[in-house]
Amino acid sequence: MSYATDEERVEAIKRWWKENGTAVILGLVVGLGGVVGWRLWTGHVESRAVDASEIYMAMVSVARQDSQIAHDHGTTLMEGYPRTPYAALAALELARLAVERDDLVLAEGRLRWAMDHARAAETAQVARTRLARILIADGRAEDALTLLEIPAPEGFVGIVEELRGDAYRMLGQMDQARAAYDRAVLISGGVSDYLHMKRDALNAPIQVSDS
């Protein structure tokens, strides 16, 4: 559409503004509100992350001296800051303290919580491998193997294969244990004497008691 005079253009603009001005203003308000709201939200998230990091550092600093205070800090992080990375790290530390008290049931619960709430795949895998060790030590090798079926991030594959070897050995499945240890040795570059010892122990003759 063309307009013959400036007056016609002005009148057309007035009509358009009368018909659409409210929507434009509303859109601007919503848009600006969204920007402000997003900034407030990100500021809130960053503030909570800083708070969580301070609580976690306080927890770590006292963990060796006062396990009760460490427990309180860890519980605060898990219950009050579950979406921060520090909550899963706190759960890992609480699991370690539980193992020191031989409370494997509590340790398992903490590690499963860490697996479910970890913000990083590496943190979840640390929890998974530690839990697998607990399950094997508790005689639950099949549960450990099931847990280890989840693909591991790079850098953890060798540890997973070693744990598979431990689980298979406990189940008496020596061929599978040997294969798992072989994979672990290969991934480690063959530099782990401990892995070689585990592998070689599978070939040791069974000692039969005379009694």
UniProtKB/TrEMBL annotation:
Domain Ancillary SecYEG translocon subunit/Cell division coordinator CpoB TPR, chain residue ranges per copy: 14-203
Name residues in a coiled coil: none
Subcellular localization is given as: Cell membrane
Q: Which UniProt keywords apply?
A: Cell membrane, Chaperone, Membrane, Transmembrane, Transmembrane helix
Q: Which InterPro entries match?
A: SecYEG/CpoB_TPR, TPR-like_helical_dom_sf, YfgM
User: What Gene Ontology cellular-component terms does the record carry?
Assistant: plasma membrane
Named from the GO MF annotations, one term is:
protein-containing complex binding
Membrane-topology annotation of the record: Single-pass type II membrane protein
Enumerate the SUPFAM superfamilies for this protein: TPR-like
Q: Where are the membrane-spanning stretches?
A: 21-41
Where does this protein chiefly localize?
membrane
Q: Which domain of life is it from?
A: Bacteria
Alphabetized Pfam families for the sequence: TPR_21
Per the record, the similarity remark reads: Belongs to the YfgM family.
The name this protein goes by in its record: Ancillary SecYEG translocon subunit
State the species of origin.
Answer: Ectothiorhodospira magna
> Which taxonomic lineage does the organism of this UniProt entry have?
Bacteria, Pseudomonadati, Pseudomonadota, Gammaproteobacteria, Chromatiales
